[in-house]
Design a protein that fits this description.
- The chain is of the alpha+beta class.
- The chain folds into two domains: 60 residues, no CATH class; 60 residues.
- 48% of the residues lie in helices and 12% in strands.
- The chain contains two helices and five strands.
- The strands form two sheets. Strands 2-1-3 form a three-stranded antiparallel β-sheet. A two-stranded antiparallel sheet has the order 4-5.
- Strand 4 and strand 5 form a beta hairpin.
- The chain is rod-shaped, with a radius of gyration of 45 Å.
Length: 162
């Protein structure tokens, strides 16, 4: 049976329960196609010595609904501003959405056109069949009336001879 000991495990005395400090940076791509691409927070436990491209230390104003970094503001130092909707990426994304909607509408129109063409073909076929039936009925009626005319004069000649 194993003995229980209260001897500390190596390295356990050095463990701390202090939380790790998180550094918050903000990524901004003015040409991003989505709101998250234009601005989102980045959390790291390592501070950046040099700030990478599109990364900023300053947080955007919380009142902004769609913040984006503009490097031309603040005498060229840059600052956060509200997205104007004129960013190239956003315009491109909106155009792509419109193209997708038009493509979907075009596909629906093509399907409806094909369905209408089939219906029209069946209606035309039905009309042709009805026309053939009417022609056959007229032909039969003419044959019947033609037989009656040929039989009447024969009857008339017989009655005239008597």
């Amino acid at each position: 049976m194993a003995d229980e000991t209260n001897t500390p495990v190596a390295g356990a005395q050095n463990a701390t329960t202090e939380p790790t400090k998180l550094y918050v940076y903000y990524y901004s791509d003015p040409d991003g196609t989505t709101k998250d691409a234009r601005c989102h927070a980045i959390y790291t436990d390592v501070p950046f010595d040099t700030i990478p491209w599109h990364i900023h230390k300053e947080a955007p104003d919380t009142s902004m609904t769609d913040p984006v970094w503009d490097s031309n503001l603040n005498n060229g130092l840059g600052a956060w501003k509200e997205n104007s909707g004129e960013a190239q990426g956003q315009i491109l994304a909106e155009a792509q959405n419109k193209i997708a909607q038009l493509s979907q509408n075009n596909q629906l129109n093509t399907e409806q056109s094909a369905m209408l063409t089939k219906i029209l073909a069946s209606v035309t076929e039905g009309q042709e069949n009805t026309q053939k039936l009417i022609m056959a009925m007229q032909k039969t009626m003419m044959q019947m009336t033609g037989q009656d005319k040929t039989t009447e004069p024969a009857n008339n000649t017989e009655s005239a001879n008597k």
